[in-house]
Write a structure and sequence with these properties.
Elements lengths: L8 H8 L1 H33 L18 H28 L11 H32 L7 H31 L1 E2 L2 E2 L7
Antiparallel strand pairs: 1-2
Helix pairs in contact: 2-3, 2-4, 3-4, 4-5
Protein name: PGG domain-containing protein
Keywords: Membrane, Transmembrane, Transmembrane helix
GO cellular component, one term: membrane
């Protein structure tokens, strides 16, 4: 209902919380800038690695380790890293070019940030799997025992990113799709 000055509750909220939108815009831009830098680095590395096969290739262009399962793991992980980091980069660019209207903060921006963070995590994990597969291809015939320590050390960046960003992701998804003090915000189910 309107008050005595014919202002709706939404108008009053917007007027009284104007700085909240400015702070939210600044935080979203800073976060999207940082994450898009990481996504761009992963795109660059994954693209370069796709054309530089571990172990090299023969004169006819056939990879030396074509029959090794590790090469297929490398190629699949590198492809996944390339496409998921590209998706992440596009999501963060979508955040940076948003209008930042009040309604964008309810659905559009949290959805883009969530998709961006998930695909960025996926791209980092896939890049590290590709790294492990390429090391296995290069070292499997000389040093077998080195793979376990390298695999453990290579998983640290991915786990660290997950532990640092997972609370943010849960909060974004819960605030966007979860219940609120005003009732259910969304009928959509996240799978």
């Amino acid at each position: 209902m309107d008050n005595n000055e014919l202002d709706t509750p939404s108008d009053i909220f917007t007027e009284q919380h104007e700085t909240l939108i400015e702070q939210g815009e600044k935080w979203m831009k800073d976060t999207a800038n940082s994450c898009s830098l990481v996504a761009a680095l992963v795109v660059t590395v994954a693209f370069a690695a796709a054309f530089t096969l571990p172990g090299g290739s023969k004169d006819d262009g056939t990879p030396n380790y074509l029959n090794k399962p590790s090469l297929m793991v490398f190629l699949a992980a590198d492809t996944l890293a390339l496409f998921s980091s590209s998706t992440s980069l596009l999501m963060f660019l979508g955040i940076l070019t948003s209008r930042y209207s009040e309604k964008d903060f309810l659905r559009s921006l949290p959805m883009k940030m969530g998709i961006g963070l998930l695909t960025l995590f996926l791209s980092i994990a896939a890049m590290l799997i590709a790294f492990g597969a390429s090391l296995h291809l290069v070292l499997y015939h000389n040093v077998n025992w080195i793979m376990v320590p390298i695999g453990l050390v290579a998983s640290v960046p991915s786990l660290l990113f997950a532990f640092l960003q997972f609370p943010l992701l849960v909060e974004l998804l819960f605030s966007t799709f979860g219940p609120s003090i005003f009732g259910k915000q969304s009928d959509e189910i996240i799978m």
